[in-house]
Amino acid sequence: MRDGPPGGSSILQRLARLEEYESTWRASNIPIREQSSGGDPESGGLFVTLDRDQHRLDIRRPASFFSGIPEKAWTVDLSELPEHGGPDMRRVRSYGYAVDIAQDLLVLMVLEDDGPDLEEYPQCYVLSLSGNGATHPLAARRQLIYDESCLDWSSVEADIEIVGDLVGCTVLGSDVCMSVHNWKTGAMLWCDSEEGTEIIENHARCHILDPTHVLKISEYDLAVYRMAAKGGSTPGRLVCNLGMPAFADAFEVFHCGSYIQRPPQTPDCSPDFECDDGVTVLAVKYEICHESRPWQDRAILVAVIPITTILAQTPGALPPSRSRPRQRFWSEWGAHGARLVLIPFNETTCSADICAFGSRVAISLSFPFSRQPGVVDVAVLDVREGVKHARDGSDAKREGTASSRLLVLDRFTEDDTPFFARSVEAKMPYRMVRTRQMNWAVAQTRVRDLSNSFRSNVSDVA
User: Fold this and answer.
1) Domain 41-347+411-421: which topology?
2) Which residues lie below 8 Å from residue 142, measured CB to CB, with a gap of 6+?
3) 156-166 pLDDT, tens digit each
């Protein structure tokens, strides 16, 4: 956690808010504010809605409970996009976007209805939020170009993230295309692709780790690449493959999802505290089943991994003798640097909604065919070095009681679960608050809002 800019509240007032924040964790009573309107909750802590008919982008930042950040709303007029050489949003078949308020940046990816060929890569524009569709003044090019442009699309599903000068894109068609550009220079620093619908189902994504490294997730593998320094169509240099815990025979992953959000900067106000993006975590959700009993022996595994844990395996963080890329087993890198959350279930359907923000991950669990179909269990974990468990205990195994649907253990053994091939440790410090909601739709909204309400709160008492 970083102290806010000078001015505003006194030291005593900041300490009082800090203590108030910590008390909510100790009492397992984190406040929740329901949001009255929708929007994309995965845009850096902002709720963003694109109205194509109105040529309007609506952005809303919810207020923070503790840090003094007020609620704020922006409306961006995109009606002049065609005049600036951009698309007419009313004729766009599908789209994706990301915003960075601090940089006045909108990255907009579109596939137009009247394109000459369905086998094309969508156009990616670098725009100014305040410029009514104009190219961002710091961008050397209006568009980011992907060199491998022949792809088979029925519609675009695009995940876009902005990290400083970098833009990471994962675009889904019949193939998966991943790339990282410097949006200011227009240079492509890294690219890769996966083929086939089976790969898509198992989730291939890229996530920017820092200015020089990118993480590629493909099925059950985590691969770290070093990006090109000056650009070029290159998959970069493979730094390491990070192995996840091995599954027992006949168990396999049939679906995967990944989630990461860095706390946004707030240049328009003077908060008492600002979230430290250095403790940001990656959450990866794996859905597991038995090959011969796919509807019986099933589980959801959520790995919560701080970015610092991943970067610690890069050559610059290792002795020269270990600088060559190699496969690293979970016991070498994840046992003390990550947390595992296991949700086993049999002969029923389990839905897990994940929302990550900074060092916090919210998990909401719904079992629609259980005896309590309207009940949703919600858990919020804060995973990072130095955190003190909210219950003032060191035995994390207490989180996995007989009545619990969610296991968070320091050590998983065969007595705890049959899913792993051998005992697995995951001992990264964490704290957790759990609650229960009675309505799935309301609870899902509240989980998203809960995670966003944390975006400028303090993470620990110094």
Assistant:
1) Lipocalin (2.40.128)
2) 84, 85, 86, 125, 126, 135
3) 678 899 999 99
